[in-house]
Design brief:
It comes from Phaeomonas parva. This is DUF2470 domain-containing protein. It holds the Pfam family CREG_beta-barrel. Keywords: Signal. 27% of the residues lie in helices and 27% in strands. It is α+β, with helices and mostly antiparallel strands. It folds into 2 domains: 4-56 and 219-328, Split barrel-like (Alpha-Beta Barrel); 60-210, Electron Transport, Fmn-binding Protein, Chain A (Pnp Oxidase, Chain A). Helix 7 (235-243) packs across helix 8 (288-306).
Length: 329
């Protein structure tokens, strides 16, 4: 069996990259790829055949996006000369305990004047893309539509001051000004989009409010960048060991797009097609360190499968999140 040093090198954790071993490949018994495609009449369960959860529920995904984004585009209904037309503007926010976006707004701002005349608003929030090769349009996003309400409760205002100041350092400069007040959006509809051609659907507001954001929600972007940068050369092993199907074209590229406590999403370009997959952890992570450990295990197992050293009987749970539109036509 390879040494610990060789294992670390294979995972891209040591300078010099993966060690090279010549061996006959002996693949683990792979679980069947389960389809979870947008637009299907029936979506597959988020549990695999052993009862282990592989993916977050849609309300959890939506709540995780709104938790992590911290800023978005607020759309209000224009008044005056542009009466009735949508007016979009950039805003920062935090979430209260029910997942309601809380905004600190200047009473003289155009969007504030609009919403005081007509309280119907919506806000689009999206996870940031920090790498050029991952387009912003491919990132998960969420639209919260509802009515705006001024926060008047003193205890709630005090809590908002603390939470908002921690999330947005500039707030301390304006939070005491009588021109600024806290407002919150009371959701009436919530719409979640997973990315290009991935699951998109309306989310029940009560389910959204009761859902807990993923423990990695605020760390996802940094973790995704780290995996792609540190383990980029090892990502093809995940594809060949767990995702490749007969008839797939030559692998062109593979990137991790999302990581949460249950697993990670991957975007794979092979041949003329680009598909989205979900590769689940064997055990749900409860901390960032747990998630990093589970990711390391996936890379190690994939290396062992590819090089004929794997002694396990089963592969991690896998879902097909989206197939290229050209493939399905």
């Amino acid at each position: 069996m390879r040494s610990a040093v060789a294992a670390a090198a294979a995972l891209g954790l040591l300078a010099g990259g993966a060690g090279a071993f010549s061996a006959t490949r002996r693949a683990a018994r792979r679980a069947p790829l389960r389809m979870v495609l947008a637009g299907d009449d029936i979506l597959a369960s988020t549990e695999d055949e052993t009862g282990v959860r592989c993916s977050l529920s849609v309300p959890e995904r939506a709540r995780s996006v709104t938790q992590a984004a911290k800023s978005g585009t607020l759309c209000t209904i224009s008044q005056g000369e542009l009466e009735g037309m949508p007016f979009g503007s950039y805003v920062d926010y935090v979430l209260d305990n029910d997942g309601h976006p809380v905004l600190l707004l200047n009473e003289q701002s155009m969007h504030t004047r609009n919403m005081l005349a007509d309280g119907r608003v919506s806000m689009l929030v999206q996870l940031k893309s920090t790498r050029r090769e991952i387009p912003a349009a491919a990132q998960p996003r969420c639209t919260v539509a509802g009515r705006i309400a001024k926060v008047d409760d003193k205890e709630e205002i005090l809590q908002n001051r603390v939470t908002y100041s921690l999330a947005h350092s500039y707030a301390e400069q304006v939070i005491e000004s009588p021109s600024f007040s806290f407002y919150k959006i009371i959701p009436e509809r919530v719409y979640y989009v997973g990315g290009f051609g991935v699951l998109s659907e309306w989310v029940d507001v009560q389910d959204y409010q009761q859902a807990q954001p993923d423990i990695l929600a605020d760390k996802t972007a940094d973790l995704v960048d780290k995996v792609n940068e540190v383990n980029g050369e090892e990502l093809p092993n995940l594809y060949t060991s767990y995702l490749a199907e007969e008839g797939d074209g030559e692998l062109q590229s593979i990137r991790v797009t999302t990581v949460d406590r249950l697993g990670m999403d991957l975007r794979v370009k092979h041949g003329d097609y680009t598909d989205e997959y979900r590769l689940g952890f064997r055990m749900a992570a409860t901390t960032l360190e747990d998630a990093q450990s589970e990711i390391t295990k996936l890379f190690q197992e994939a290396w062992e499968v590819a090089n004929g050293y794997y002694e396990g009987d089963t592969s991690p749970p896998v879902e097909v999140l989206a197939k290229d539109a050209l493939r399905r036509s």
